[in-house]
């Protein structure tokens, strides 16, 4: 009692789904922009073909038929002015047509005809190795569904040969290995099927879910045919779990439930079997898929016997709801069930009649399998012989190539010696150039830093002089600290965030004394920021603060806030004021130009980059500085 053909049918369907996915990735037929694709163009209909594949993957049959007809009309319209693009499109359409006839209409003979025409159409085209290999794999699948397992094995081996010749990665050969393994399984050649399943199992960690479903589904079949029911149960359970809850894989899920129902019947687990059969029967009634409904009816007959409902089993046999399908394996399963029912209900004449049919069908299948196994071994021998001859030719060419390379290596050695001497001389010259450039950068940086200090000293002295002229008591302590730190900062390229903030505090204390309106000054430092370990270009924040005071707060007062926090692997420093903001005519003053030049020179020597900016807010202005953690201040 076996559920084999539904798995055969679904393997054909899933193999062609893999075709759709593979062709999109391996053949390089990416979707083109909808804006550039015209209604009557090769690009538009190639895009429509890609959509056709997606509809197939989602089992949207109506949309598939519509898109296929539109592509066919376009190809018919241009049949007298074909180019490579249209030949490629026609090859894909023929291949897809073969898949449609096989997987949707259940006519693998017609699918085979379309696939052969697709392969003929591909002759002479370049850049379609993936498409050609998939068409060859489909041919193997269609032969298998026609019951011609020997031809199926041969087709898959040819596809593997082509894949090896084009350098295809092992992960892209999964569908081909699955095809060979499955063909040997249904041929009843379990020695070879075991060998190929072991080869395929090595790629399980690299399989996607679609490949894994096919692997476990068909590997379960192999165990089932050998009556290894527990191993088959494990495989079918894994297959069902892979597609459970996926709306696009409902067909696969309920096929797996059908298989699980049969296995549970064989194990005598009636309750579990009934649950699986009921769910699967409901789905396949809704889609009206006769072959699987025929299987499920057979399973219900077997389940009735397991539960002791012999009269009901007899009634189902005598009043079958579904006609016999033209699938030997399905008929074999039904005849076994009928024979058991007739024997257990005392209809021995009918049992004998069914037994005779069953015996004839078994003999026919066994003879066919034996013949196919012999043919497959002969084909395998021819493949192996051809591969040996190819390898021998490759080895001869390799020896000739090695000799040529040896002669070339001697010539190159002399050239290399001359090249090394040249490179050493050029490196010496380049080192001199680098040293000169470093000196220039250092002088530019020193000049840039020295331009900042006089600027701030002048502003500070001006403020104190104005204070004295207005009769205010000058605060020379802050001025002294500002001058001393300004001189210190002019001699260094970098400083710590703590020192920079301390310098800014002195600057703000002087500025706020000269402003007509109050200036509220605050610092917000995140707990995870260590200001003593964060380093930055000296006087950068002070220039941001000066810019905020000068252009936004000096006349009207307001709020000035410095915010410091972590941002990923950086420290973000923000200077925010609520002043009038920057006017459209704002021009970058000396201090901001120095900041820009300093950061630009430092960034040239670092992989990570300091970033900064200046922008208006709804009220006020925001200056910001982003300091990477892994940043050095060594210009050399």
Ordered list of secondary-structure elements with their pairings:
Blueprint: H1 5-26, H2 42-57, H3 61-77, H4 84-104, H5 108-122, H6 129-145, H7 149-165, H8 174-187, H9 190-201, H10 209-225, H11 229-243, H12 250-267, H13 270-287, H14 290-306, H15 310-318, H16 328-344, H17 348-469, H18 476-490, E1 494-496, H19 497-514, E2 519-525, E3 535-537, H20 540-553, E4 558-567, E5 570-577, H21 590-603, E6 611-616, E7 621-628
Parallel strand pairs: 2-4
Antiparallel strand pairs: 1-3, 4-5, 5-7, 6-7
Helix pairs in contact: 1-2, 1-4, 1-6, 1-10, 1-12, 2-3, 2-4, 3-4, 4-5, 4-6, 5-6, 6-7, 6-8, 7-8, 7-17, 8-9, 8-10, 10-11, 11-12, 12-13, 12-14, 13-14, 14-15, 14-16, 15-16, 16-17, 17-18, 17-19, 17-21, 18-19, 19-20
Textual characterization of the structure:
- By secondary structure, this protein is an alpha+beta fold.
- The strands form two sheets. The chain has a five-stranded mixed sheet with strand order 2-4-5-7-6, with helices on one face. It has a two-stranded antiparallel ribbon with strand order 1-3.
- The longest helix is centred in the middle third of the chain and has 122 residues.
Keywords:
single chain, 636 residues, alpha+beta, 21 helices, 7 strands, disordered N terminus
Mean pLDDT: 80
The coarse overall form would be: elongated
Query: What Rg, in angstroms, do the CA atoms define?
Result: 40 Å
Low-pLDDT segments, ≥5 res: 1-39
Number of strands: 7
User: Order of strands in the sheet with the most strands?
Assistant: 2-4-5-7-6
Order of H and E elements: HHHHHHHHHHHHHHHHHHEHEEHEEHEE
How far apart the termini lie comes to 81 Å
Strand content: 5-15%
| Derived structural class | alpha+beta
Instruction: Please give the count of helices.
Output: 21
């Amino acid at each position: 009692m076996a559920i084999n053909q539904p798995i055969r049918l679904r393997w054909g369907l899933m193999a062609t789904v893999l075709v759709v996915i593979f062709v999109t990735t391996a053949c390089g037929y990416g979707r083109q922009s909808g804006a550039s694709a015209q209604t009557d163009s090769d690009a538009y209909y190639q895009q429509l073909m890609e959509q056709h594949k997606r509809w197939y993957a989602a089992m949207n049959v109506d949309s598939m038929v519509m898109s296929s007809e539109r592509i066919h009309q376009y190809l018919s319209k241009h049949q007298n002015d074909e180019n490579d693009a249209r030949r490629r499109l026609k090859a894909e359409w023929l291949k897809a047509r073969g898949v449609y006839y096989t997987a949707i209409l259940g006519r693998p003979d017609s699918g085979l005809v379309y696939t052969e025409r697709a392969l003929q159409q591909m002759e002479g085209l370049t850049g379609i190795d993936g498409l050609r290999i998939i068409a060859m794999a489909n041919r193997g699948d269609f032969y298998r569904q026609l019951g011609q397992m020997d031809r199926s094995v041969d087709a898959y081996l040819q596809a593997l040969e082509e894949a090896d010749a084009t350098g295809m990665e092992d992960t892209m050969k999964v569908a081909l290995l699955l095809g060979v393994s499955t063909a040997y399984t249904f041929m009843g050649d379990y020695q070879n099927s075991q060998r190929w399943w072991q080869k395929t199992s090595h790629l399980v960690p690299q399989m996607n879910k679609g490949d894994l479903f096919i692997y476990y589904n068909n590997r379960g079949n192999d165990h089932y045919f050998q009556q290894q029911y527990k191993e088959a149960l494990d495989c079918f359970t894994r297959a069902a779990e892979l597609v459970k809850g996926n709306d696009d894989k409902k067909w696969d899920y309920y096929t797996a439930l059908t298989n699980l129902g049969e296995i549970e019947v064989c194990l005598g687990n009636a309750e579990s079997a009934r649950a699986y059969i009921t769910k699967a029967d409901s789905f396949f009634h809704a889609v009206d898929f006769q072959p699987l409904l025929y299987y499920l009816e057979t399973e219900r007959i077997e389940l009735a016997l397991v539960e002791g409902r012999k009269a009901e089993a007899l009634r189902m046999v005598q009043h079958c709801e579904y006609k016999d399908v033209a699938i030997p394996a399905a008929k074999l399963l039904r005849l076994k069930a009928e024979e058991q029912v007739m024997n257990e209900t005392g209809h021995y004449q009918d049992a004998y009649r069914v037994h005779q049919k069953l015996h004839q069908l078994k003999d026919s299948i066994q003879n066919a399998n034996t013949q196919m196994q012999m043919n497959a071994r002969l084909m395998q021998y021819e493949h192996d012989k051809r591969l040996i001859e190819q390898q021998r030719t490759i080895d001869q060419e390799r020896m000739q190539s090695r000799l040529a390379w040896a002669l070339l290596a001697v010539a190159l050695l002399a050239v290399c010696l001359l090249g090394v001497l040249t490179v050493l001389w050029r490196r010496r010259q380049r080192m001199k150039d680098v040293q000169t450039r470093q000196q220039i950068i250092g002088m530019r940086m020193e000049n840039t830093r020295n331009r900042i200090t006089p600027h701030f000293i002048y502003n500070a002295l001006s403020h104190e002089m104005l204070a004295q002229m207005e009769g205010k008591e000058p605060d020379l302590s802050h001025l002294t600290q500002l001058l001393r730190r300004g001189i210190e900062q002019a001699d260094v390229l970098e400083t710590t965030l703590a020192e920079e903030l301390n310098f800014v505090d002195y600057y703000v204390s002087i500025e706020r004394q000269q402003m007509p309106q109050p200036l509220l000054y605050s610092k917000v430092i995140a707990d995870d920021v260590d200001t003593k370990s964060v380093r930055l270009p000296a006087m950068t924040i002070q220039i941001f603060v000066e810019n905020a005071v000068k252009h936004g707060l000096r006349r009207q007062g307001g709020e000035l806030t410095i915010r410091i926090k972590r941002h990923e692997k950086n420290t973000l420093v923000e200077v925010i004021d609520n002043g009038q903001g920057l006017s459209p005519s704002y021009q970058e003053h000396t201090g901001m130009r120095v900041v820009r030049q300093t950061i630009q020179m430092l960034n040239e020597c670092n992989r990570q980059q300091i970033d900064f900016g200046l922008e208006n807010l709804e009220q006020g202005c925001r200056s910001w500085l982003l300091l990477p953690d892994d940043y050095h201040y060594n210009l050399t």
